[in-house]
Structure formats: C-alpha cells, structure tokens
Design a protein that fits this description.
The protein is an all-alpha fold. The protein has helices spanning 8-12, 15-26, 29-36, 40-46, 50-74, 79-96, 98-106, 108-112, 115-139, 148-167, 175-188.
Length: 196
C-alpha cells in the first residue's frame, strides 16, 4: 500500500459500512468507489485490492484501540481499577467507530490470519491486558492467573462481542452501562459466595 493523502483517510471509513453489511467477498471495488467517492482507478493506485482496504481499516481501528487501552492501562490505581478503565476505553472505540468495528469483527477470521493484524491485536489489547493481569496478581487486586495471555484473549472476545451487540441495539446501550456490566462480570464473576 502506498502512503495515502490525508484527505482520503476519512473517505475510506465509508467502506467500513459495506464490509460490515456485506462482508469482504460480496463487496466489489466498484462498490467501494461509489461509497467513498474515490475513483476506482485511484483506489487501485493506492491499494492492490479490497483486502488491502479492509486491512487499512483494521489497522486504523486497532491503532485507536491501542492508544485508548495504553492510556487506560498506564493510569493510576490498582490493576483491577485499570482493567475496568481498559474495558471502558475499548468499548468507547466501538461506540466511536461502530461500522468499522463491526467490519473488523465480520471478517475477524480472515483478519487474524494477516500477520500485520495479528501483531496489532497483540500490541493493542492482549499484551497490555496480560501485563495488567500479572500486575494484579502482584498487587493483590486480581487473582494470580497461570495463563494471563489466555485470559486476555478471552477478555478481548468478551469486550468485542459486548461492543458489537450493544452498539447494534436500538437504542444503543451506553458505554457506561456496557462497561459496568462487563466489568462486574469480569471482576466479580457470576457465582455468589454460596455458589459452587
């Protein structure tokens, strides 16, 4: 992919609607050109095809996730308090970029096989959350977890599914409600003190 002029980037976000609605396979470059108001020849000048456009959108959303998660994880407080802020920050990205986030999840299996995307997912969420889980074990705010990366991946799935579901509701759930519900589940669980 060639470097894009700044004016093209916001226009390309319109392609996320197509990918979220129809998926990559059913979307044609003509559709992308019509949705973005970027001539097809110009799209082919900058991208080899629609897969590269989808990858560009993934990278943009994951860059926003990484900035939000990094800031939330680096703030003050216990690891548990920071994990709650990370969940809220990631859910806020879903609220801010609903169609691009849904496009990412719609073709997540394909995205996970792209090396650049896998690296970005690691940097944007799994790595920082794994570190928080280890820190929580040390500061006593979280249980000691033998496999923090596995738990971080499970949390990514929980946040992603919650974000996709709740932002697609009519009316959409608020970020605060989503974050409170998911944080309570993650940090307190479902079992009561008397449960087994």
């Amino acid at each position: 992919m060639r470097p894009l002029p700044p004016h093209m980037e916001p226009k390309l976000m319109a392609a996320a609607d197509l990918f979220a609605r129809d998926g990559l396979d059913a979307t044609k470059m003509e559709d992308v050109a019509a949705a973005t108001a970027i001539p097809k020849a110009t799209l082919y000048y900058y991208f080899t095809g629609k897969e590269e456009i989808l990858s560009f959108l993934f990278q943009k959303v994951l860059g926003v996730v990484q900035a939000a998660v990094t800031q939330a994880a680096a703030g003050p407080g216990t690891a548990a308090a920071r994990l709650r802020r990370v969940i809220t920050a990631h859910l806020q990205v879903f609220a801010d970029y609903p169609t691009a986030s849904r496009a990412l999840q719609f073709d997540l299996g394909r995205a996970a096989r792209l090396p650049d995307i896998a690296t970005s997912v690691e940097a944007s969420f799994i790595g920082p959350v794994s570190q928080l889980i280890r820190e929580g074990g040390r500061d006593g705010s979280l249980r000691v977890i033998p496999h923090p990366r596995m738990v971080a991946a499970a949390l990514l799935g929980a946040v992603t599914t919650t974000g996709m579901h709740a932002t697609g509701m009519e009316p959409p759930a608020s970020v605060a409600d989503m974050a409170d519900t998911l944080s309570q589940l993650v940090l307190e669980g479902l079992v009561t003190n008397g449960g087994t």
